[in-house]
Amino acid sequence: MKMIATIEARMASSRLPGKILKEAVGKPLLELMVERVRRSKLINEVVVATTVESPDDVTEKACSEMGVKCYRGSNDDVLERVLKAAQAHKADLIVELTGDCPLIDPVEMDKVIQYYLDNSFDYVSNFRDRLFPRGTETQVFSVKVLEDVARRTQDPADHEHVSLFIYEHPELYKLGGVSAEPFYNRPDLRLTVDTPQDYELVKTFFEKLYPGNPQFTLKDIIQLLDSEPALKALNQQIQQKPVR
Predict the structure, then answer these.
(1) CATH code for 3-234?
(2) Is the pLDDT of residue 154 over 80?
(3) Residue 243 has pLDDT above 80, yes or no
(4) Where in the chain are the domains?
(5) Is the model's pLDDT at 241 over the cut of 90?
(6) How far apart are CA 57 and CA 65, in angstroms?
(7) Residues 6 or more apart from 232 whose CB is under 8 A from it?
(8) How far is CA 60 from CA 6, 9, 38, 51, 161, in A?
(9) Out of 108, 170, 176, 242, which could bridge 121 as a Cys pair, Cβ 3.0 to 4.6 Å?
(10) pTM of the model
């Protein structure tokens, strides 16, 4: 079966426009994320799922420059965009990722994927119990499951948040989850990029860790935060926007 990672990414953002192409260590965050995702031992291909809106002409251009596949679809119907990206690349399985998670750890990501492959779940994620730091989210499901979701719901929230309908309906889908080991049980940490404060923190991680080790891990990030607690203050006041 062909497994692709879809990275939902667009230039429009209510709190930090253009965030996916903001730079750290001289590279766009999207490129740094693609680098990390490509280190997965289980994913066959990475596809950036962006929009057909004109601001994302630069997103497509950036993808071409970094040599990663790009699919352009609906701005608001993200479910349709991801589904069509997967279909266009003849995928069987989707690893759903979002472009605001440039620090995602491929090792932890592969643990989620392997758990899916070793079992008979319709959907597996590592965030249902919200123990991992925010910004490490990985979700795995089949194209057939997402096709089923597209047939069942037209709720705008379900189409904005690709897998929302799946994990809100355990009576329809068999759900599995990977919990954080004690060291990674850090729900207090915010490693996603949604605001200027988030960007400053993530940029700092890359500046401190990437030059010496481009393959730095989530463990390295947590150890740095614990050794320099002032870093956490950069974005600890930011509130995550609710899904509904």
Answers:
(1) 3.90.550.10
(2) yes
(3) no
(4) 3-234
(5) no
(6) 12
(7) 188, 189, 225
(8) 14, 10, 18, 9, 22
(9) 176
(10) 0.95
